[in-house]
Write a structure and sequence with these properties.
Layout (H helix, E strand, L loop, with lengths): L31 H6 L9 H10 L1 E5 L4 E3 L7 E7 L2 E6 L5 E7 L4 E2 L1 H6 L6 E4 L3 E7 H10 L1 H27 L2 H12 L7 E3 L2 H8 L3 H14 L2 E4 L2 E4 L2 H21 L15 H10 L1
Antiparallel strand pairs: 1-8, 2-7, 3-6, 3-8, 4-5, 4-7, 9-11, 10-11
């Protein structure tokens, strides 16, 4: 993803001739209407309003590796992912990237700037080929004003994104590489049906907060153990329960570490007080 920083985001090129709306890709993919009808955000709309939303929106094909929106750019639209996967992430001044979330069909992104009119807060990059529905700000805001339930569900999505970001920060701060990598793989294979994950090891490293070399070494270990199978650009989960066990063991170790990190501040046999820093923090918060 780092090498893509020179590209112009899709949201900045939406009006260009070479990005005219394209016909849906072949295959057994759901129509935009049916996909939105099953979406927690859009299912509250009347059928005629939903049909109008799809008709007013513009469909685009996205290419793997394409930058869709870039952090700091102006934002006047939101996107609904119709097919494929999109990575939401951040990039620092040196070009190092960190994936925060991977989106799947039916998910919405770009909604924060759509709501407040401020610049984009993160990057969005296509992990696979796929399709998008672009929704202009004015049209969505009209639905927010006229439909309280729609507005409420949009707020729920924003809160859910905030909670997901908090969990990601916790994962990156407190979990080891094995747990972070296992959690990332399991989150992308969120059903018992899907066992293959189309993603590069570089992107996995950005998701797990680790170098590509570290990810490669860990994946090879898991392949030898029979947990996964590796092919170019793809990870096949052979034993997802083994990855879940890695997560469980990490959580148990974390609980043990927390217990051992609270030494008694008085001599043996005395009643233990909290650490001085804990008492100080309690006074500040209170």
């Amino acid at each position: 993803m780092n090498s893509l920083s020179h590209q112009t985001p899709l949201s900045s090129r939406a009006g260009e001739a070479h990005l005219k709306a394209k016909s849906p890709m072949a295959g057994a993919q759901q129509s935009p209407f049916r996909l939105l009808l099953a979406s927690p955000l859009f299912s509250c709309l009347k059928h005629e309003d939903l049909e109008a939303l799809v008709e007013r929106g513009r469909q685009y094909s996205m290419r793997r590796g394409e930058i869709l929106i870039r952090q700091g750019d102006p934002g006047s639209c939101a996107f609904v992912l119709l097919a494929g996967e999109v990575a939401i992430g951040l990039e620092n001044a040196t070009g190092r990237a960190q994936i925060l979330q991977i989106l799947k069909p039916g998910d919405v992104f770009g909604e924060t700037s759509l709501m407040d009119g401020q610049p984009r807060s993160a990057n969005a990059t296509a992990l696979t080929n796929g399709r998008l529905l672009l929704l202009e700000r004015g049209y969505v805001l009209s639905h927010i004003k006229s439909n309280p339930e729609f507005a409420s569900r949009l707020i729920e999505i924003l809160c859910s994104r905030l909670r997901a970001t908090s969990r990601r920060v916790e994962m990156l701060r407190f979990k080891d590489v094995s747990a972070r990598l296992a959690a990332g793989l399991l989150s992308m294979a969120d059903s018992s049906i899907k066992r293959h994950i189309d993603i590069t090891q570089s992107a996995l490293g950005e998701l797990a907060g680790a170098s590509r070399e570290t990810v490669n070494r860990k994946l090879r270990e898991w392949e030898i153990a029979g947990y996964i199978k590796l092919t170019p650009g793809r990870v096949v989960l052979c034993r997802p329960e083994a990855l879940k066990l890695i997560l469980t063991e990490s959580q148990g170790q974390e609980a043990m570490d927390e217990g051992s990190a609270l030494p008694c501040t008085k001599r043996r046999g005395a009643i233990c007080d909290p650490l001085p820093g804990v008492r100080l923090a309690s006074r500040i918060v209170g």
